[in-house]
Specification:
This protein is of the alpha+beta class. It has one domain: Protein Transport Mog1p, Chain A, CATH 3.40.1000. 35% of the residues lie in helices and 36% in strands. It has 3 helices and 11 strands; from the N terminus they run H-E-E-E-E-E-E-H-E-E-E-E-H-E. The protein has helices at residues 2-54, 127-139, 200-207; strands spanning 60-67, 70-81, 86-91, 94-100, 103-108, 111-120, 146-147, 159-166, 170-177, 186-193, 210-211. Residues 1-17 and 19-53 have low confidence and may be disordered. This is Lipoprotein. Residues 21-54 are annotated as: Disordered. Residues 37-47 have a biased composition (Basic and acidic residues). It comes from Priestia veravalensis.
């Protein structure tokens, strides 16, 4: 009889121990899952923060460009066009202003005959129509409108076309620029005295344009 009771008592104890171990495993598993969730959230928050930081632009930065065969460096200052919803860097010695709806201008402080007009084009731009409008504007400068090439910025911009016209005093050049990942499609028109080739400074500033 005592032997039977001893066996029964041993069986009860083993059953109780097994139940305790299962509860302990379940409890530990619950804690493990709970601990992992904040780590995943932290990783996502870090990714979001990183993405936000990529959109922040410095208030100023050095800009390099070639001017009449000489390499130049000047400080560029961050400006925003509320008129056309983009930001860009404007070189020291140049002034950026909103001219009228859908048109901004940058002019050279030392000689306001050197200036550039910036027109942001819609996503569904009709390039043939815009090109005809550009050619018509150039014909007001001279009936001899020339198709031009831009060697310095061919890898920077994707040009639809470049045309220029000159008279005895002035040269006007139209650049039709296709959109990129960060930059909108644009029509850039640069006005200079006929004796100067100082357009790279303007193209360098245009190169810094990014959508807001």
């Amino acid at each position: 009889m005592q032997k039977y009771l001893l066996v029964l008592f041993t069986a009860i104890m083993l059953t109780a121990c097994g139940t305790t171990q299962e509860n302990s495993k379940s409890h530990n598993s619950s804690h493990s899952t709970s601990d992992q969730a904040p780590k995943e959230k932290t990783s996502k928050e870090s990714s979001d923060t990183s993405s936000d930081e990529q959109t922040i632009r410095l208030l100023e930065q050095m800009m390099a460009y070639e001017n009449e065969g000489m390499q130049e460096e000047k400080m560029g200052f961050l400006k925003t066009s509320e008129n056309q919803k983009y930001s860009l860097y404007v070189l020291e010695g140049y002034t950026f202003t909103e001219e009228e709806p859908r048109k901004d201008v940058i002019y050279y402080d030392a000689n306001d005959k050197l200036w550039m007009r910036i027109e942001v084009l819609p996503d569904n731009v009709d390039w043939d129509k815009v090109e005809q409008e550009a050619l018509k504007g150039l014909e007001a400068v001279s009936t001899d409108v020339q198709k031009s090439s831009v060697t310095s910025y061919n890898e920077t911009f994707s040009f639809h076309s470049v045309h220029s016209a000159s008279n005895d005093k002035n040269r006007t050049t139209s650049y039709l620029v296709k959109a990129s990942d960060k930059r909108p499609a644009m029509r850039l028109t640069i006005f200079t005295p006929v004796e100067t080739e100082n357009v790279n400074a303007f193209l360098e500033m245009a190169n810094s344009i990014e959508n807001l």
